Amino acid sequence: MGKLCACARSRGNVFMSDIDLKDFSVNDASGVFYDNVDSVIVVDPSIDQYKTIVRKGLFEKLVEDTGSYHDLIMKLWFHFGETNEEVVEDYQVFAESTGDFKGKYSRRLKIVLDGEDKMHLVQLTVYPFEGDSKYLFILDELDGKESMEESLTTNKINTIQNSYLFSMYIDLAQDTTSSINITEMSEDTVNVQLKYSEWRMMIVNMFLPEDQDQFLRRTDPEYLKKNFTPGRTSSYDCMMRNMEGKFIWVKLIFSRAQTYNEDDYRFVFMVQDIHDNSMEILSALKKYEEMAITDPLTGVFNHGEIETQFHNALAVKHKNGDPVSVMMLDLDHFKKINDNYGHSVGDTTLKTFASILKDFAISEKALVGRWGGEEFVIVCQSKGADNANVMARRLKQRVEDHEFPTIGHITCSIGVTEIKEEDTFDDAFNRIDKAMYESKHNGRNMITVL
Predict the structure, then answer these.
(1) Which domain holds residue 393?
(2) Of the candidates 255, 279, 303, which is a domain's last residue?
(3) With a cut of 70, which residues of the chain have pLDDT below it?
(4) Which segments within 230-342 are labelled E, that is strand?
(5) Strand, helix or coil for residue 45
(6) What is the pLDDT of residues 6-23, one digit of tens each?
(7) Residues 170 and 150 both lie in one domain
(8) Residue 233: CATH number of its domain
(9) Residue 436 falls within a domain, yes or no?
(10) Whether residue 169 is found in the same domain as residue 126
(11) Which of 43, 285, 360, 436 could be a cystine partner for 50, CB 3.0 to 4.6 Å?
(12) pLDDT 10s digits, 47-61
């Protein structure tokens, strides 16, 4: 090829541009091609090898004289659109089928060399050898003006569709996929020859383990055939690994093509990035959930939630017999605080008391809530009456030792009971209520276990 082109270029010392159009030959065209093409690579996927015939410009750094065809595909395709950072391994499973071409193929690639910030826009054309598995890759870097126009066009498209990470066309009757587009790699369609049945099993590990069964069920061909009439679209949300390897919230969308043939099962499948919006919603839900179960004054569980936790403790006891105890606490002489100092000081006292209980409960892996007024309940998992009594004594002392704002020191009375196998909620509650009032009746700042 080099000798032919050199001969064509000489043409008796006549410049190519001076040759009359009617005299222009294949050899002359070869000469122009040789002078202008940036890289020509012959590849043989059957032995995973490539050989570089022409290598100019950026391709002097990008490709070697010879090398692995798989590595070449990884360099050209499997990186983020405008960086040289490779996508995570989960997405590299498509590499083998990406390099399988059934005919002529052309696309544009974005290449960033190691150590550079500049993005090179490359035109790739693939010519298969007739009757063979080898290919000829022709690669040319486009000039700066065309690269800029491409970038501006891409940015316009991305502002419209930047939330769609993945899309493809599915034909269930033929078990095929086509028009695969992975937005984070490129806005162009990826040349991947994949059966739909193979694709499902390749992609399933990209989902959270708890979402994988649902993915396989919702993408099962028989499920899609049964549940989608022509023109119907359906979606569901789950967590999927993105190309950086992080799990994000996505919306999986299936839409069956509108046809009049009931046996024509063609679908469009899309993955939409809804992570930011989902996290905002989850944050709001968490906020409202906390508001629904939290006492607004003290910040511990409200009456409804601590009662629910009380019932949960009963259920645990009835299910596996593990020890569970409950205690009720009441501030001593709290009415006098309100009468002498006002309700603002009374509220501050309750908040301080609740803070002591909450910190203590966290250290003991217990749950605390405000039952009402100055009464609080603590649910003590995995503690029998003796251990709960020891816990109550430490807590009583901590309250007694604390310097409360404005009022100084104050004490509390505590009732403790261990939940029994045969207990109902009323049985257990009545015992701690009685125990707490016995503590108050017998002098306050005391603990009674029933």
Answers:
(1) 294-449
(2) 279
(3) 1-18, 80-84, 87-97, 144-163, 183-192
(4) 233-241, 247-256, 266-273, 324-331
(5) helix
(6) 444 555 455 556 677 777
(7) no
(8) 3.30.450.20
(9) yes
(10) no
(11) 43
(12) 999 999 999 988 999
